[in-house]
Protein 1
Amino acid sequence: MLTVHQLTKRFSNGKGIFDISFTVNKGEVFGFLGPNGAGKSTTIRHIMGFMKPDGGFVQVKGLDTWREQGKVQASIGYLPGEIAFIEGMTGQSFLGFMAAMQGVRDLRKRDQLIERLQFDVRTPIRKMSKGMKQKVGIVAAFMHDPAVIILDEPTSGLDPLMQKVFIELVLEEKARGTTFLMSSHSFPEIERTCDRAAIIKDGRLVAVNDIHELQSLQRKLFEVTFADAASAQRFAANAAGLAIESHKERSVRVAVQGNYEAFVQETAKYKVRNIDVFTQNLEDIFMNYYDREGTIR
Amino acid sequence: MNATLYVQMMKVNLKGFLNYALGSAFYILLMFWLYPSMASNAKAIDELVQAMPEGVGRAFALTGFDSAEAFISGEYYGLILVLILAIVCVQLSTQLMAKLVDQGAMAYLLATPTTRGKVAGAQAAVLVSGLLLIMAVTTLAGLAGDAWFLDGKFAFDTTRFLQMNAAAFLLFFAVGGISFLVSACSNDEKKARGISGLITFGFFSFDLLGKLSENIDWMRDISIFSLYRPADIVNGTARLAPAFALLFAIGLVAFAVAVVWFRKRDLPL
């Protein structure tokens, strides 16, 4: 459905993207992860046909996104990372205008989406909050029922409730066979929606992984508070194969990376008062991952 | 050209166009209203103009007040209309392209099934339509002013008045084309406005300075504003055909290059 083939773009400062290749299949949600400046946006700009590749190509439904402008966009929905609309319009007039540009006659889907995301379309765009603009953008990206939807940092600005609604929306569309490419910083968002994810760093694709594989890379810190200090002492001493980060009176911090079962079994042997979890953020996972990759190479 | 985009952008910008058009119409009517009282003192005023340094009269197209179109030419087409339209060209061309790219709204337009050529074409058409609208309203106001205030009692050469309006439109078709070209090549709104402002007002100043003193006459030769000579049109000494053709050609080429360039370049959206 979406093919990126040996995509290369070199900017005058030596940065850019180099030899990026991946394929997203129909009905798949593909995550695109990487720290800021790694080349996520540049890749998306090529997918949208905003930039001309130095080498390689991007195809959506078999159409080259740079050369087949005017045709290829009919099957693409796009939510830009930076939200800016044409000034002097309300949400309503903007969406009406976008529908006309997209050639959409059936406006039911638009109305459904507006109802679902709960916002007042009559508000002038310049008076909208960031989250509200984001909602307008989401409606514009989904309303023409495109085969492929490109989302650049889609949930930034949305409150947690709306993030949940948004994730539901993505999963529903996915069930209907829509293909997604989603760039993100938020691991939970990727975790709940994506099947596979690509990690990009310094303009190069580091890995394309199954999402479960990425989940196993994520290290979580559990702070277990035991009923008494003795239990904590014994747990810390006997926990074979568990990485004990620190031990302080009744509480022990354990780093778990994939080996949840061992952790649960060992913990269950004692009386536990409380467990707190600290999730490692995506940035750290990357760093971990890169370091590991680096040593392997 | 993308018709949907054209209609939408006209809607968004119509209020601005009308403000300029009505302002211009009001000013020209004011001039027509003033003329009869000026004409009765024409001799005294002519003497006043004669007394000014020669260059000043030439620079501001003060050709005398013996006919209504000469008065209008001097008082309006020589300076104020030119400034208004120059501002419209620089502002509007920047808003229509560079601003949309800078702020990112262009991404929405290009994500719909249209081509960049059509988007740029529609935006160019909006700019030209705006100029045409302002000039049309100004011309009609002039003709109305003639019928209303001069009432056949004072000389008014309609043909030359129309030629003057056509010349003004063509000048700004060319200036608008150049500004649009700058805008279509820019990623930065402020830079686009700065550069096209510099070019437009640079040309304008060269023309003005060249007119002020004969020693720096050559300055006029490098300014497209020298192709617009309302005073000569009024006197009947202007060679219209080559000037019109050249202005039209400059505008057309600039718009065409803008569209082609915009189709090919990388957009940071």
Protein 2
Amino acid sequence: MAKAKPVEQLSQVIVRFAGDSGDGMQLTGAQFTSETALLGNDISTFPDFPAEIRAPAGSLPGVSGFQVHFADFDILTPGDAPNVLVAMNPAALKTNIKDLPHGGTLIVNSDAFNERNLQKAGYATSPLEDGSLDEYQLHSVPLTTLTIGALKGIEGVTPREAERSKNMFALGLMSWLYGRTIDATVAFLEDKFAKRPEIAAANVKALQAGYAFGETTETFAVTYEVKPAKLQPGTYRNITGNQALSLGLVAASRLSQLPLFLGAYPITPASAILEELAGYKHFGVRTFQAEDEIAAAGAAVGAAFGGSLGVTTSAGPGIVLKAETIGLAIMLELPLVICDIQRAGPSTGMPTKPEQGDLLMVLFGRNGESPVPVVAPRSPSDCFDAAIEACRIALKYRTPVYLLSDAYLANGSEPWLLPGVETLPDISTTFATEPNDGDEFLPYLRDDVTLARPWALPGTPGLEHRIGGLEKADRTGSISYDPDNHDLMTLLRAQKVAGIANDIPELEVDDPDGDARVLVLGWGGTYGPIAAACRRVRQAGGSVAHAHLRHLNPFPRNTGDVLRAYERVLVPEMNLGQLSKLVRAEFLVDAVGYNRVRGLPLRAAEVADAIEALL
Amino acid sequence: MSELTAKDYRTDQEVRWCPGCGDYAILAAMQSFMPELGIERERSVFISGIGCAARFPYYMNTYGMHSIHGRAPAIATGLATSRPDLSVWVVTGDGDALSIGGNHLIHALRRNVNVKILLFNNKIYGLTKGQYSPTSELGKVTKSTPMGSLDWPFNPLSLAIGAEATFVGRAIDTDKAGMTAVLRAAAAHRGSAFVEIFQNCPIFNDDAWAFVRDDKEGVNRIPLRHGEPITWGPDRSKALRQRADGSIEVCDADDQNVLVHDAEHETPSLAFALSRVTQQRNGGTPVGVFRSIERPVYDDLMAEQLATATAKRGEGDLAALLHSGETWTIS
């Protein structure tokens, strides 16, 4: 047993694991997160990986990264820059070192720094030897050699398989360095490789060897401790946005007492929702992997006609294809939830990278006057509540509703304070069961308050009716080309959606000082970086207010009043100013944009600078 | 359920097809045939895309949806899959099903979703006023092809058989008895059924099917009856037989090798060969049920998976689901 090393207390740490796509960095990061969550730290993670499944080994485009931020206080983002970088090869070092501040801790797999890999990464000389890393606390560890050495004697494990366990060695080392226990990961590995016990044994051995290496080596003089965060009491689990969104849909199905029908076509970064929901058949969930994006949306509309909670999921390039079907759902006035997990565009763009570029598309990207409510979650766990809210609006107002997430929320994770099922909203709905006008059933006779039309399901005797994409007469739903009727129906559809403003919370402003002159207005997935930026500004003595939109159509009814109460309005977005444009058009407010489209979350420090510039 | 008649299936909507359109005859046949199916009116749903044929649901007093161009099979798939208790019919045309909606059609057929797909084939675009369609013959002169069309047409039945359809039939708009027989068989078939109906467009492609529509004596119609020798003609003197390579040729009815129709044959080769028998090539046109086999139905399989999952894991418990995975508690 090695002598215990001194323990240094830290308030927060940001670790980035970076390696080749085949190095298992996502798994390593996820397990480190899991161990960290169980310790009670607040956490926020950001996986950053290429669209290529296995880009050429050792190449720059093949680098996959996973950043985890953990702290003893409540944190808002995965962090702008890491304090610790684990680089498994020269390419990973090359693409990530620019983010590591001078003085940061750098752990590299020295075995991977051979001539071939250095060349692939574009290094003329080895950075481990040429002094170019002198500004960092460099720990050069022969991870591959140590791993292979540790696994000698495990039967049935090939040298290649032994080498592939080096990520677990790295995880063991990092777990030791930050005082995480590895029990949960051992259990995870034994479960994951249950069918190949020798591989499970190899991975567990590598993990333990990495942990022991930390204890015994002189490379690391101290270990670090980050105490648990003082989070709200309750039961937590770590959750990604796509998982939370999936659970939100299942919950909405239960809360509305309607079977969930998902029509989807595989697309990054939305596929995980289809895969997740496919595992909930015992909740009555039907998942339909369609022949294309159009059919996915169409099948969801068909299921909605039959009384299911119809949902379709996709990302920008697929949403474009669904536009026609969403127009139909607007005309049919049937509930439908469309989840757009936004990624960098246009066209195929950068499939695994986040952007907020689809806002104007989902609002306006259809023919005719075709209003659709839009709901946007603000954090990974918030995807759960936002999904329920989207379903609530869709069912109550018989309308398609957009849920606008993004690749950052989808793949990022954070601790989620689990809600009691009894605290979730009642979103039950009613079907038409009898004629609503004497002996007749009028499919477009509207509710006085919501303007929603009755939902009469096939199978209900006496309510047989036809609906379709042609304009229909008010009340009866018969085909109508009457000019005044079209004018009326267009207005009714618009009023129905506009009226939802009376049924959503007012826009809240976070202005702790109460004397701010600058308001930062954000929406959706930028909540973390913006809130973190506001904290920085306030810690530096500045006063700033933050409001964050969850509903983008309609806007909360007090939005105009909130915006006009401030001298300056800053709108940070991961696009070229789409909300700014709306705010200017809708409220005549001279909003200033802060716009970055790098396929990365906004950086809190940069948003803070943009705020400071307006103070 | 009181006895329904054709009248109960009519709606108050004025039928707006052109005078003489073959769609009238199909609608009338459908309305008079539905009551005998024994399916409650409220459990019948007609779904269409866009085109002249797509107006069909407005005139059937059942549940219905006039949707978007080519997408009816996809919408019907969602409905049929989530509501196995319904009788779902898709009404489509040659442009709707084979051009803009080709992808949905073939996938609905291969999945064997429980929908009945009726393709009204008039070999022309009617609603957009006379452009050639994917079933128009090569060289078709239309407003969009003044020097003749350049693309080789689809044979709808060959396409359906190639797409793994479990039921494939053909009927003629003016042949009420023959159409009713095919539709009855389609309705009884569990799984997807594909029926091509020769339909006349008197405005833009009149008499495209005159050789069989007006053929009361049966000179050109080759009736297909499962288990019976395939013979036709006024005196039933003509017959079909299979060559060694599988293709089909015309022979005398007293030929030793007259083909006996087998709609239930395991492999689709015979049905496919019959779908290649055309007026132009063989001097006759087969009508009736080409193929009718049993295969697991998509909707049933999905329902089974739900039942299996529920039996294995118990009915889903939402609170337990939220608390699944690794959790920790902060007090």
